[in-house]
Specification:
This protein has twelve helices and 24 strands. It is of the alpha/beta class. The chain folds into two domains: 202 residues, FAD/NAD(P)-binding domain, CATH 3.50.50; 203 residues, FAD/NAD(P)-binding domain (3-Layer(bba) Sandwich), CATH 3.50.50. The strands form seven sheets. The protein has an eight-stranded mixed beta sheet with strand order 1-8-7-6-3-2-9-20. A four-stranded parallel beta sheet has the order 13-12-11-17. α8 links the parallel β12 and β13. α1 packs parallel to α10.
């Protein structure tokens, strides 16, 4: 076991260390807000630990998959987002959290274990894909959570079209041209909307031997509504528009098993088999397991239970984002803030103020926030949502969705790049270029395993 190099200062006289675990929206926003509040102070230092050295702008991942956006334009380097001299970025995986010793064990890029001491700890580790124990999901499904997932799915779609164009076996061809998305929340609906447009555009422009009616796209949802985060009428509108585009929606339909060349949906004898080589799983996210293992109080889902100040059951340990259950005092008793990027950003800003107040002996404030609304894209320049209590739909909602997320992109250069990508793709469309990256890891499951390639027999 080795220790990460200390900053150039005597260890026994080092500043108060705020250790932030997680480089997503919650963790990065906390670090940035702390930098602003601390200014030129030398008595506090910030350490930001992330498994990647960049912030991934996840809301735009489906557009990376469909070729609308270049991958580099939806990521920002962490070292460019935090610039204070006493802010340290560490690229490593969090393995263990020892609250009694006030230290965290991480595994760096060298494969060695390192100990990081802290005075204040922030748990902002986000979540990992939740498979709910469905057989075959980890082995055969694709995700939509990381940049590697978006790359892999884009390559798989193009590969299926390439194979289908020369496939002579009707059954094999049908499986190659069938795409299934598991989960009809915002992520699932945005994914199915993007890949539907992508597949049909490529077929029309580059694969004329494939007939339109041969393409089959399914959206499978255990619940009784599409976009359960929104009101039922917004979900109904989204379902109607998707159905009109040929997407088959299966509500109140459990996905029971995933096999190499087919998925089983529906309960028991009433179930059916859908032949497919492409299942995209967006059905759930659970908090990073290390949160529940570290010793703070957690709820039934494994999220750290916090006070309204975002402090956990352990003094000096805070939790925000997807891995935290922060009580919402403006809603029903027992309700926590939803794990959304919009909430995570606001939580990070308030937490920075609370951390500084705690260090200086002040009073920490409760987190209060009323979301502005919810928006979702369903592809083909169409969206749905509720903003300030007003329902919006169609191209207006889609325009608002793009505008909101464009405004949240970090840095002027990324805003310009993304705007140009949108304009150029609108003019010329996407192309069927496969960018194969051999050594990428999927976020499906918690093991970070490498996704196996399709066999020649698929």
């Amino acid at each position: 076991m080795t220790a990460v190099s200390e900053p150039p200062t005597e260890a026994e006289h080092r500043p108060h260390r705020v250790l932030i675990l997680g480089g997503g929206f919650a963790g990065v926003t906390t670090a940035q807000a702390l930098e602003k509040r601390l200014g030129g102070r030398h008595d506090v230092e910030i350490w930001l630990v992330s498994s990647d050295n960049f912030l991934l702008f996840t809301p735009l991942l489906p557009e990376v998959c469909s070729g609308i956006l270049e991958p580099r334009h939806v990521v920002a380097p962490l070292r460019g987002m935090v610039r204070r001299k006493s802010t340290w970025c560490v690229t490593a995986d969090v393995e263990e959290i020892h609250l009694a010793e006030s230290e965290v064990v991480v595994i760096g890029g060298d494969g060695h274990r390192h100990r990081l001491a802290y005075d204040t700890l922030v748990l902002a580790l986000g979540g990992v894909t939740h498979t709910f124990g469905i057989p075959g999901v980890e082995e055969h499904a694709m995700g939509m959570k990381t940049l590697a997932d978006a790359f892999s799915l884009r390559n798989r779609i193009i590969e299926m079209l390439e194979r289908a164009e020369i496939e002579e076996d009707p059954a094999a061809r049908r499986a190659q041209l069938t795409f299934v998305v598991g989960g009809a929340g915002s992520s699932g609906v945005e994914t199915v909307g993007e890949i539907e447009g992508f597949v049909r555009h490529l077929r029309h422009r580059y694969y004329p031997e494939i007939r339109e009616q041969e393409i089959s796209i399914h959206l499978v949802e255990l619940g009784d509504q599409v976009l359960r985060e929104m009101t039922p009428d917004m979900g109904d509108y989204a379902a109607q528009r998707l159905t009109r585009r040929g997407i088959q929606i299966h509500l109140e339909t459990p996905l029971t098993e995933v096999r190499e060349r087919e998925v089983l949906v529906g309960p028991g004898s009433e179930g059916r088999t859908i032949p497919t080589l492409t299942l995209i799983w967006t059905g759930g996210v659970r908090p990073a397991p290390v949160v529940a293992e570290c010793g703070v109080d957690v709820d039934h889902a494994g999220r750290a239970v916090t006070q309204p100040t975002m402090e956990t059951s352990q003094m000096g340990v805070f939790a925000i984002g997807d891995c935290a259950a922060i009580p919402d005092s403006t809603g029903p008793v027992g309700r926590a803030f939803a794990p959304t990027a919009q909430n995570a950003v606001r939580e990070g800003r308030q937490l920075a103020a609370n951390i500084v107040a705690r260090i200086d002996g002040g009073t920490m404030a409760q987190f209060r926030y009323r979301p502005l609304g919810t928006l979702a894209s369903i592809g083909r320049r169409t969206g749905v949502g509720t903003v300030f209590g007003i329902h919006v739909r169609g191209w207006i909602a889609w325009f608002m969705w793009r505008g909101y997320y464009w405004s949240r992109l970090p840095g002027l250069n990324r805003k310009v790049h993304v705007a140009l990508d949108w304009a150029l793709t609108a003019l010329f469309g996407a192309d069927p270029v496969q960018l194969k990256v051999e050594d990428v890891r999927s976020a499906m499951g918690s093991s970070g395993r490498r996704r196996p390639p399709l066999s020649d027999e698929d």
